[in-house]
Every structure is written in structure tokens, then in C-alpha cells.
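Quick one: 3-deoxy-D-manno-octulosonic acid transferase from Haliscomenobacter hydrossis, C-alpha cells please.
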Amino acid sequence: MQGLYTTGIRLYVLLIRLAAFFHPKAKLWWRGRKNWSQNLSQALASKRKSGQMTIWLHSASLGEFEQGRPLIEAVKSQHPEVFILLTFFSPSGYEIRKNYAGADLVCYLPPDLRRNARQFLGIVQPQLAVFVKYEFWYNFLQELQREKIPVWLIAALFRPQQPFFQSWGAWYFNVLKGFDHFFVQNQESADLLKKYGIQQYTLAGDPRIDRVLQIAAEGKQFPTIEAFKKDASILMAGSTWTPDEAALAQLWSDPKQYAGWKLIIAPHEIESAHLEQIEQKFPGQCVRFSRFQPERHQHLSVLIIDNIGMLSALYRYAEIAYIGGGLGSGIHNTLEPMAFGLPVIFGPKYQKFTEAVATVELGGAFVVHSAAELIKIFDQLKAPAFTSKASSAVQTYLQQNQGATAKIMQRLEQYLYP
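--- reply ---
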């Protein structure tokens, strides 16, 4: 099985290399790992002091980074003497956070081959490795074990359907044995680990909750958004895809349905062609954020966010949030709007997200399968009493599930200073 895994990794790298000739993200993936060992050695030599304690934190992409970020910042706040190396698998994470000031060094993780893992650990020599959520890199875990370097998995989520827990999944289950400790998000994950004989876990919750509450408390302001909003109520649609935008366009096709309301759309992809498609769905109604001028565009009811990085703070201007992806392969971040106490609407592909499942059950989130259902629930949420009840459910969930970072830090303190 290990041979098949390694062959699969090599094949994946080969396909990425071929795709790099015509696909921008593949090109970034390949170029970012070119001469990785030399670049990493030089960067550490210039940035890290001799003998400085090093924690290596790895996240797949931007979403996982946000789960690890509260831990990074807690470590830096309480132990500035610790050197933090942050690695990414995906360009969508690295390119946006490559200059992140919370880490001492940010780079790509090399492909999970034994030689790479051995070389990487020989260069970095971390005292602790922390992986986020779904990162199960077999060769890196094997080498970490061989070097007796503790490795933790934070924000971990497990479900019975995963390969680890199948009758044919013995090899996958052995991957879990490479971790020294799991910080799981929910009771189901804890129960699964216990059922299969893994005792080294802590029911910590999701560190993203700490992060989104921090963002909400910062109260970042955007004059352009304030000028667009003025006295209107806002439906904030975040991380949308084409099916989401089609449903929103139907909602916005009748002015009577949105009287007194304005719509802000922050699409998941902001390529020019996609932005033009959105504009075509809202003829005469919309303007891009980068082009908005209050004196010319105040009468318009739809604002399209054509940049990356603002979304998490924009929810403070909204009364209701719509989260994209649920009409396709899966929803995006629901915790960001929840941090502002917003009722949340999304499509039916949400079951893999603990917070979404829980908030639906509590009555703070609402599932729609079509534009007709979106119109119906939006009409209900326009009633203040209905919205207030949903908002209370959202706030209850957050209050009951915050504090994951503190639980992880408590164990980290014991490790750093036994």
C-alpha cells in the first residue's frame, strides 16, 4: 500500500508539472517548490537564531490556515522567542499569506516523498509539528516518528465514512498512529478515536471560532461599503459560485422582493470573465467595488466585491448572510458571518461542516435547494422577530464552542516548559 501511495504522489507531481504549462495555479504550485531545499536552508540561515526553538505548523490552504492562525498568534504573543515555520500545500493559501507577519517564515510543503520528508526535517529540525484538520501526509508522519519529533493534529474532524474506520482501511488507520495527540472539534470525532483505541485526544473545538470572534471584535470599517449601504439592509453573499449567483439573481429580479435591501456579492473566483457573468445576471443593478462612486452608483442595489481578503470583515454591515457552494460541491465559511450574529442561508451540501449542521438544528441557519426556497426564506428573515430568534441561536452556538485555542495552548505550555 505504501508503494501505491508513493506512486500516486509521484503521478500527482507529474500531472501538476504538465498542467503548469497552461494552468496558472498549477504553475504557482510547481514554481513555488522549485529548489525548495536550497531556498529553505538559506531562509532559515538568515532568519532563525542558532538553537532557537522551532514549531512547524502546516495547513493545506487558506481555510485551514485560519484554523491554525489563532494558535500561531497565541504562541507569538506568549512566547516570542519561539520560531514559527508555516507551510502550505495549496497556492491559494500560500500566495495570499506568504507575507503573513505572524510566522517567522512561510513556504510551500514539498511533495510527500520519503526523501523530501527526510531532507525537510533535517533542514528545519522542529521541536514540534502541528498539522491542521485533514493533513495526513504519510511519509512526513513516518519521518517525524523516526526522528522522535512530536506531531499534533488540531481542528481535527473524523466521520465513520472515512477510510481510517473501514474494514479495508487498516493502512489508513496506521497513518493516524503517526500523531502524538489529536485536538478534535466535536464529540463524534472523540468517540470515533476512542472506539478504535486511540486515547491521546482532547475535545477542544474549532479554533476558527476564536479567530472569527476576534475579527468581529476588531470592527474594521470600509467607507465604500458604508456609502453603498447607507440606510438599506444588507444581504451579504459570500464565496459564491455560478449556481448561487443564478439563485440570487432570481431573488433580485423583482424589486418588490428586496425593497429596502441591497445585495453584496463576494464571489469565490474573481477572474474577469466570472465578474462579467455576474454583471450580466444583474443588468443595470450592479457595480464592482473597485469602480464604486457614491455620486454615480448610490441608486444601484448590487455591489460586487472584486478583490480577496475583505469578506470576513464585511459581514458586520449585513443583516442576513448567504454562503456559497452549497448548491455545488460544498459550502464555504459559515463561521465568519455567525461571528456577527447573522442568520445564515446556504445550499444542501453542508453536512461535512460541524458548525453548519449544529446551527441548522438550533434554528440559526437555513437550507435552500432552489431559488424559490431562497426567496421564501429571505422573505421570512426580513421579519425582525424571526431574524432575532435565529441570531440568538447563532450566538448560543458560538458561546458554547469558543476557547479551542486556550485548550491547545494549555498543552503546549506543558510541552514547552515541562
